[in-house]
Design brief:
heterodimer; A: 262 residues; 4-stranded antiparallel β-sheet; 9 helices; 22% strand; B: 224 residues; 0% strand; globular
């Protein structure tokens, strides 16, 4: 049962209860941009649903409080979202990527660089990616430079776009194509890590052994974009961890994001 | 399965209680105006906004005050959805760190601070149970969601108890099928497809019941 236009209005309840699938949620969020009635209803139902927490409230462990308060001192609050286009372009910049030590790199899988994304690509993304375009557009709208790789990927017949939460904050959008043997990782609103640690991206193929793609930092003022050139096969999993500065040869901490590429 | 699900709306109140108790509570709450949010809660919501705005400027003490005022509801909700205490703690920690980062982006015109926070918390809790999900643990989660949370860990704060009573009274105004749909999706973290499978109902029926249930709750709680 795919929600048609008329049906969309009835999705407010299951949307507020987080009971929609990802693609349905994306469609409904697009609908919300146009429908003030649904926006109002969602706001009201969220207030109502918030009351449900009273009935299950429970004293939180003291260790939660100390963990939260010690973590925030290392995290910078984001600035307010810029209102005008000129402010956006001033704020635009991409994440920076450190290439891993060459001897650890595999010859085809680890070409890593920072990419910006052209407005033309975003327009193409809007056409190509259906319900997912909104989020992708939001994640990329601050970037200005061009990306031949993403452009090519979006034109591939088997292009796949997946999204995943990063458990430490922020979200990942991954555009991939097995026919092009290529993928692009876009991390938005990623937490700024302490100086002695770094994000490290991994591909896990049929061998089950994670292969490093490379390390990168979150800039706090734009998406981190990482190009993954090669070894994108069916069932390849992309994963993200936080590693000591310089990266590790194998993951040493829990995955904070994973997504099946194709 | 369907029989087990049938008992769930009571579990939404964290523990089943005798029908007589429900009836007597219900009779107290005929007049919707009695259900309006207490003055204390309204005052607090202004405080929450101020603490959030100070947090956006890096004020860690304001954030600690915000945490202290909200953590029982956030942790309780996450725990209710996720069930596992250590995972619930992880999720709640992520929620608060994200809140700290996003504090400058809170817009009072789009809803209360508490609603914003709980929306973030609920979404993350649901993401956590879904990402760890296989058909096996779905069944375990289903079984677990029929079990009650021991009363000794339920918050005993008086203000919270009063508000919890208001919610229970409001829930009484939902039909049984609406309550069931709201409880399975909101507290249970099930997708509408899963609820449709669990209860053997068309998807459209599940959507309607959840929406109608939340609308009744909204009206009973005097949400503006």
């Amino acid at each position: 049962m795919s929600p048609d236009r008329i049906d969309l209005h009835t999705l407010s309840g299951v949307y507020v209860a987080d009971a929609l699938d990802d693609d349905e949620r994306a469609k409904f969020e697009l609908h919300l941009e146009d429908c003030s009635t649904c926006r109002d209803e969602v706001r009201e139902l969220r207030e109502a649903a918030a009351h449900l927490s009273y009935d299950v409230s429970m004293e939180a462990p003291a260790s939660l409080r100390s963990a939260v308060l010690s973590s925030i001192s290392q995290v910078r609050p984001l600035p307010p979202i810029a209102e005008s286009a000129s402010e956006v372009s001033v704020a635009a910049s991409s994440g920076t990527v450190n290439e891993l030590d060459a001897r650890r790199r595999r010859k085809s899988a680890s070409f890593v660089k920072v990419l910006g994304v052209a407005a033309a690509v975003l327009a193409l993304a809007s056409v190509t990616l259906g319900g997912l375009n909104l989020n992708l557009r939001n994640q990329l709208h601050e970037s200005t430079a061009s990306s031949a790789s993403l452009n090519g990927l979006l034109a591939a017949s088997d292009v796949r776009v997946s999204q995943a939460k990063v458990t430490t904050g922020g979200r990942a959008t991954i555009v991939s194509s097995t026919s092009m043997n290529d993928a692009v990782f876009v991390g938005a609103d990623l937490a700024i890590l302490p100086a002695n640690t770094t994000y490290q991206l991994w591909l896990v193929g049929s061998s089950g052994k994670p292969q490093s793609v490379g390390t990168f930092e979150a800039s706090g003022s734009g998406p981190a974009v990482v190009n993954v050139d090669g070894d994108v096969q069916p069932h390849t999993v992309m994963a993200l961890t936080v590693e000591p500065a310089g990266g590790s040869s194998a993951p040493t901490s829990p995955l904070i994001m994973k997504s099946v590429l194709a | 399965m369907a029989n087990a699900a049938r008992t769930l709306y009571l579990v939404g109140g964290t523990r089943p209680r005798p029908a007589a108790g429900y009836d007597s509570v219900h009779s107290v709450a005929k007049n919707p105006s009695e259900l309006n949010e207490s003055e204390g809660v309204k005052t607090q919501s202004a405080e929450l906004i101020e603490w959030l705005q100070r947090s956006a400027r890096g004020d860690e003490q304001a954030f600690a005050a915000f945490y202290d005022a909200t953590s029982a509801r956030v942790y309780g909700l996450v725990r209710r959805v996720v069930r596992d205490p250590s995972q619930a703690q992880e999720v709640a920690q992520e929620v608060y760190i994200d809140l700290w980062r996003q504090s400058a982006r809170f817009d009072p015109a789009r809803g209360s601070a508490m609603s914003w926070l709980l929306t973030m918390a609920h979404r993350r809790a649901v993401d956590r149970v879904r990402s760890a999900q296989s058909s096996t643990d779905r069944d375990e989660r289903y079984a677990a969601s029929t079990m009650e949370i021991p009363s000794d860990v339920v918050s005993e704060t008086v203000a919270l108890k009063l508000e919890a009573q208001r919610v229970r009274r409001a829930l009484v105004d939902l039909t049984e099928v609406q309550r069931e749909a709201v409880v399975l999706t909101y507290y249970g973290g099930y997708s509408h497809r899963e609820v449709s499978d669990l209860l053997g109902l068309p998807l459209g029926t599940v959507k309607t019941r959840v929406r109608d249930g939340l609308i009744r709750l909204r009206d009973a709680m005097g949400v503006q």
